[in-house]
Amino acid sequence: MQSLKDKIEQLGRTLGKTKPVEQVKDYAQLRKEYEQQANNEVRQQQLDAKRKRIEQIHGRSDLNPKWTFDNLIQDSPDVTEAVSIAQSFIAAHSDPSWRASGSHMMVFYGDYGRGKSHIAGAIAHELIDRYEISVLYRQLTSLLEMRYFSYDYSAKDDIGQKFREITQELMSVDLLILDEVCVNETVLKKSTQSWLGTLLRQRHSQNKNCILITNHDLTGLEQALGPYCFESIKEYDTYKVRFSGPSRRKTVTDDFTSASKKSTSGYVPNQVR
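-> C-alpha cells emitted (273 positions)
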C-alpha cells in the first residue's frame, strides 16, 4: 500500500514535474571543503604579503632593474666564471647553517665596463626574489661626499641627519654592495680609511655580507684602502673575482665619427672661422 508521499511522487512523475532529490552533504565533507577554501585564502594572502615585501626591498635597494642574469652577455671566460661563482654564492643562501656561519665578501675587480656592477646587481636581484635578502647598493664616492658635507653644521638641508640614517642602514642591511671603491684614488684619506674599515668590521661582527667593486687590482686596492681597512676585508670569507674581458660600453669616439660622416652640412662645434 502506497504512502501519501509515494503517491505524490508518482503523480509528479506522471505530470513530468519531479525534481531530483538533492544529495545533502554530510558535516565531514562540508568541513573539509571549508578548510580547503580557508587554506587557499591564507596561502594567497601569504603570497600577496611576500610579493609586497619583495617589492619594498627592491624599492629600497637602489639597484638598476636591468642588472639581471637574463640581460647579461656571457661573451668571455671571465664573465662565465664570474656567473658560476655568483650562482654558487646565491645557492649557498638556501642553507641556514651557511648563512649563520659567518660573514662573506665578494671582491669584483677589473677595468671599466667589464660587467662587475651588472653581475653584482644580478646577484642582489636573485637574493631578494628567492630569500627576501635586504640589499643596499651605493657608490662609495657618493657616501664619502655625503659624509664630508655632514660636518657642515651650518647647513640647512639636514645632511647630517640623512648621513646618520644611511649609516645605520649601511650597518644593518643583509647585503651591502659598494661600487666605485677608491675610484681615481691612489690612497684614501686616513679618516676615510678608518670610517670604512670600522663599517666593514661592524658588519662582519653581525654576519652581514658585502660585495666590493673596484677598478684597482688587489695590490692597488690594498694600498688605496690602507692596512686597517684592508685587514677588515681579510676577516671575511672572501671570494675574489677578476674581470679581464673586453669592455661592453660603446665608445663616444666611434659614435661621433659615424655621425660626422653622415653630416655633410650644418653647424660644426668649435669651428674657427
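The chain has two domains: 31-61, 62-243.
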